[in-house]
Amino acid sequence: MRKGLSLLLAAVALSGVAACAAPVGPPEVTLFAAGKSLAVKPSQYCDVKVENCQADPKAAGVLRVPKGQEVKISVDPRIGETPWQVVFRYRKPDNGKVDGRSEAFAPNKTLAYTLKLPEADAQLETIEVHQYGAAISANTEGGVSFGTRGTWVISVDDRG
User: Fold this and answer.
1) Which segments of 2-158 does DSSP mark as H helices, in order?
2) Which of 20, 38, 85, 96 might form a disulfide with 92, Cβ 3.0–4.6 angstroms?
3) Higher pLDDT, 73 or 137
4) 46 vs 56: CA distance, rounded Å
5) Could you tell me if residue 5 is left (phi over 0), alpha (psi between -120 and 50 degrees) or otherwise beta?
6) Nearest residue to 65 via CA among 127, 124, 128, 116
7) Would you call 73 helix, strand, or coil by DSSP?
8) How far is CA 80 from the centre of its chain?
9) Would you say 57 and 73 are in contact if contact means Cβ atoms under 8 Å apart?
10) How far apart are CA 98 and CA 87, in angstroms?
11) E strands, 13-143, in order
């Protein structure tokens, strides 16, 4: 009996430690390029229903990404539990701008993405990571749109 009580108390203590170790605050996105890394907090973060939102315009980050370089993006597991996507803009050699986006990643499928532009001499300008929430609405094309729960914004420093 005494041994059973000791095991029960140990289990309760460990669960308390695990609860204390849970992440505090909104999830971060980490980016890696040209030997540097950058952790970014969300510029906007809402509850799962996309109703109660907090904005932090100072959360946007800046990362040096030379022309033609790829960017590795790693998301917090709390982002990966939901659908998410990478949205980006780049400049072509003729200065034309192109908007692009990755596939939408299904919940619990991946926590990382490598952004590689289709043209070797293109210059990345911006990256956004979008986490989708449970708010769903019909769009004009007969499809479904998911509300953006969180947005992480990264500007690119392209100085040579």
Assistant:
1) 2-20, 77-80
2) 96
3) 73
4) 12
5) alpha
6) 124
7) strand
8) 8
9) no
10) 11
11) 29-33, 36-40, 44-46, 53-55, 61-64, 71-75, 84-91, 97-101, 112-115, 123-138
